[in-house]
TrEMBL record:
SUPFAM superfamilies attached to this UniProt entry: FAD/NAD(P)-binding domain (SSF51905), FAD/NAD-linked reductases, dimerisation (C-terminal) domain (SSF55424)
Superkingdom assignment: Bacteria
Keyword Lipoprotein: no
Cofactor(s) named in the record: FAD
Descriptive protein name: Dihydrolipoyl dehydrogenase
Domain FAD/NAD(P)-binding, first and last residues per copy: 7-327
Cofactor binding: number and manner: Binds 1 FAD per subunit.
Species this chain originates from: Bosea robiniae
Length: 465
């Protein structure tokens, strides 16, 4: 058996793991990273990147279809669009491949050793990796668990046949005529919306009484409206029961307790993600768990000295940028730098239509935390750039503490607001007040102008409403 020794071993090369390894390499730490599938993890291969590529394809197709139907308000017409979904998927796979190669190049540049295979703990300092050429034993002073997450499977609706996960949905080479999405969270709605734009008749089955349960009704309102306009049937308070006897649909129990069948060529199950710990040999360690997730402290340390955990395997918020920030921090801690998790906010985005972005506290969360509030909201209907993009739905909302005027949270819903997350994140991280935002010149005409306007509204003197 080959033996490798190193200072830092990272298990899993998703955004958490590969960023940790790169930063460690930059700091001169002798680092090994183990990956059982492809570099880049869920995010790059079957998550963030491929989903946004397919959302883009759907948006372009919808624009062309609108023009073909003569529905644009500015007189654009075009021929009936046709989409070769196989080619679109190949284009998406090409982007993924380029990014895979990019990650490999960055790891090599940082002098990180890459080992392909599945890692299993033997003890707190030793991991055995099953590689194509046989088992390799790796001994490390510090080990980072960055094994990520996988889609939750419903026992009465297992993946296979016409029941697919987000990974299956991103690989479809034909648009299903009828798609039922089980779960109205961001992954289900992003993909459901994309397939609706590509021509599928989409139904969304959500057990709770609202879509995107983590966001308030003001933020989700424009998304519900758009889903209706796209012909998406949203069944709230409804439970999936299992496939129809012929396998041509889904049996559900509706909110009023009645059983109904929804015809479907494909059933996309997006009911959450679970940590990947099976086969990792955690029984050979003594870690504290938080349910099925690994419990961590403010330095991403686990209950065992020298073992860290980062990213989705540590629970919510399961977001790529959180995993990356944790990875970078842990590398610096292993290098002996004085770091701890001191972030004030982590932006969460739904790439739905329109998009939602939220950083920091929502009005309800801020009230629950006991703050007296000043809230300002500015509608895109009064923003010139939104009008010129034909995207007037939505708003920017700023939540501040009354008195100090410290901004506690910023939310927006609207076309293209994901790009505003940078400004929102910076404002929260830098401890901005309403006056700081109102006093910053925002270029005209941009969607970003709605940000100082919302701050001015909270201060009682918005200029454009
Ligand atoms: C459809 C979809 C869309 C998404 N969109 C977004 C988005 O827009 N923005 C966002 O921030 N997040 C998004 N996410 C979530 C994002 O993908 C995750 O938060 C992110 O990938 C977590 O990173 P990670 O490094 O913790 O784990 P992962 O990316 O899951 O990587 C873990 C890696 O560890 C490897 N591994 C597991 N076990 C072992 C083992 N025993 N040995 C060796 N290797 C192992 C796996 O093969 C995997 O490559 C999306 C997810 C999905 C499914």
């Amino acid at each position: 058996m080959t033996e490798i020794t190193c200072k830092l071993l990272v298990i899993g090369a998703g955004p958490g793991g590969y960023v940790c390894a790169i930063r460690a390499g930059q700091l001169g730490i002798d680092t090994v990273i183990v990956e059982s599938t492809k570099l880049g993890g869920s995010c790059l291969n079957v998550g963030c990147i491929p989903s946004k590529a397919m959302i883009h394809v759907a948006e372009e197709f919808e624009k062309a279809a609108e023009a073909a139907a003569g529905k644009t308000p500015f007189g654009l017409t075009a021929a009936e669009p046709k989409l070769d979904l196989k080619q679109a998927v190949a284009w998406k796979d090409g982007i993924v491949q380029r990014l895979n190669n990019g990650v490999a190049g960055l790891l090599r540049k940082a002098k990180v050793k890459i080992v392909h295979g599945k890692a299993r703990f033997r003890d707190g300092k030793t991991v055995v990796v099953e590689t194509e050429t046989g088992p390799k034993t790796i001994q490390a002073e510090a080990i980072v668990i960055a094994t990520g997450s996988a889609p939750v499977e419903l026992p009465f609706l297992p993946f296979g046949g016409n029941v697919i996960s987000s990974t299956g949905a991103l690989a479809l080479t034909e648009v299903p005529k009828r798609l039922v999405v089980v779960g109205g969270g961001y992954i289900g709605l992003e993909l459901g919306t994309a397939f609706a734009k590509l021509g599928a008749k989409v139904s969304v089955v959500e057990a709770q009484d609202k879509i995107l349960p983590l966001y308030d009704a003001e933020l989700t309102g424009p998304i519900s409206k758009r889903l209706t306009a796209l012909g998406v049937e949203v069944l709230l308070g409804a439970k999936a029961l299992g496939p129809t006897p012929k396998g041509d649909g889904l049996r559900i129990e509706t909110a009023d307790g009645k059983e109904r069948s929804l015809p479907a060529d494909r059933i996309l199950v997006t009911v959450g993600r679970k940590p990947v710990t099976d086969g990792l040999g955690l029984e050979n360690l003594v870690l504290d768990m938080d349910g099925r997730f690994i419990r961590i402290g403010e330095r991403c340390e686990t209950a065992m000295r020298g073992i860290y955990a980062i990213g989705d395997v540590t629970g919510e918020p399961m977001l790529a940028h959180r995993a990356m920030a944790q990875g970078e921090m842990v590398a610096e801690i292993v290098a002996g730098l004085p770091r701890a998790w001191d972030k004030r906010g982590i932006a969460a985005i739904c790439f739905t239509d329109p998009e939602i972005v939220s950083v920091g506290l929502s009005p309800d969360e801020a009230k629950r935390a006991g703050h007296e509030l000043k809230i300002g909201q500015f509608p895109f209907a009064a923003n010139g750039r939104a009008m010129t993009r034909h995207g007037e739905a939505g708003f920017v909302r700023v939540v501040a503490q009354a008195g100090s005027e410290l901004v506690l949270g910023i939310q927006a819903v609207g076309q293209g607001v994901s790009e505003l997350s940078a400004a929102f994140g910076l404002a929260i991280e830098m401890g901005a007040t309403l006056q700081d935002i109102a006093g910053t010149i925002h270029a005209h005409p941009t969607l970003g102008e709605a940000f100082p306007e919302a701050a001015m509204k909270a201060l009682g003197h918005a200029l454009h409403i």
